[in-house]
Design goal:
Order of helices and strands: EHEHHEEEEHHEHEHHHHHHHH
Number of helices: 14
Largest sheet: 6 strands, mixed
Structural class: alpha/beta
Strand order of the largest sheet: 3-2-1-4-7-8
């Protein structure tokens, strides 16, 4: 049997909009009465704006990609308390963990909360979360954590539609539907799967049967993956790294000296999304067919909680 009754579960999260906490709360609705849950909030000491200013948003990219992190503190953390399970709820920024999540993983609290503990990762993302998860897997491996499950809540809207809605949300603070665009974020139907995932987690916790948990979560719809997105992430990561190094060379985040490059990166990215996306979509379809065997194997890997070093270089 894993742990003792009652079972102590910590849900660690960082959120700007509240969506990620809501997703974690929805999952926790499926926990049984013998599960005691502590929500521990990761708070950036220097707050990030929301809604974002466009320059501040894109200026955060190098720090995310180069994994600089940001100084954090915890709210709701009880020093020395033992947890039978930790759920780490994170959000990708620029295909990497958000700056506060990276800051947490680099902090003294990460070692205290994650060392030799069973961990489930949970993300709320637009559609690309693979590389961000790989970075977290790497750190869990370093801490000696046992990564027993992963849940990925994603926006199921078409790529361009979800891009427009997340831009409206991030820069105008408007999540609700407007004009021809739907509500931003993860769809209600996906969110409502949360309690089912929670029941599967609680059952694994009570019975100590962790080996099959991820397979059961995948069957329940916890990880839906479009193989074509693997190719898009692979391409984008290389570009982000190149731009991150160039911008970083001009100074630290917020430095006026790097703003021209930040603006150039922003403009190129926007062109890539809205003008070149249809071309990339067709190309990715062709590449997916040509690389079908590799992508099937990659999709199977990303639906699991296995870890291989340098999956994304």
């Amino acid at each position: 049997m894993a742990g003792s009754v009652p079972y102590n579960i910590a849900i660690l999260y960082y959120t700007q909009t509240g969506q990620l906490k809501m997703l974690a709360e929805k999952v926790s609705e499926g926990f049984s009465g013998d599960c005691r849950v502590d929500f521990i909030e990761i708070i950036a000491v220097k707050q990030f704006p929301f809604p974002w200013n466009t320059i501040e948003f894109f200026d955060a990219m190098p720090g995310c990609v180069l994994e600089e992190g940001s100084e954090i503190r915890l709210s709701g953390y009880e020093e020395g308390k033992h947890y039978d399970l930790v759920i780490l709820a994170y959000q990708p920024w620029f295909l990497h963990p958000s700056l506060p999540i990276t800051g947490f993983l680099q902090s003294k609290w990460a070692d205290k909360l994650l060392k030799d503990v069973k961990v489930i990762t949970l993300t709320g993302a637009r559609n690309m979360w693979l590389n961000a998860l790989e970075k977290i897997k790497r750190d869990l491996h370093k801490f000696g954590s046992e990564h027993v499950g992963n849940i990925a809540f994603v926006d199921s809207s078409p790529n361009l539609i979800s891009t427009l809605t997340v831009i409206r949300w991030a820069f105008k603070g408007r999540k609700e539907a407007s004009g021809l665009l739907p509500e931003a974020g993860v769809q209600v139907a996906e969110i409502n799967r949360g309690p089912l995932f929670g029941k599967l987690i609680a059952s694994a916790l009570q019975e100590g049967k962790w080996q099959t948990l991820q397979q059961e979560l995948v069957k329940a719809g916890a990880v839906k993956l479009k193989p074509g997105l693997i190719l898009l992430e692979e391409t984008a990561i290389g570009q982000f790294k190149m731009w991150a190094r160039k911008i970083k060379a001009k100074g630290e985040r917020g430095s006026p000296a790097r703003r021209p490059l930040v603006r150039l990166f922003k403009n190129i990215l926007i062109v890539g999304i809205f003008i070149l996306s249809p071309i990339k979509f067709v190309v990715s379809k062709i590449q997916a067919m040509l690389n079908r065997k590799r992508l099937v194997a990659a999709a199977k890997y990303f639906q699991s909680v296995n870890y291989e070093e340098n999956k994304f270089s």
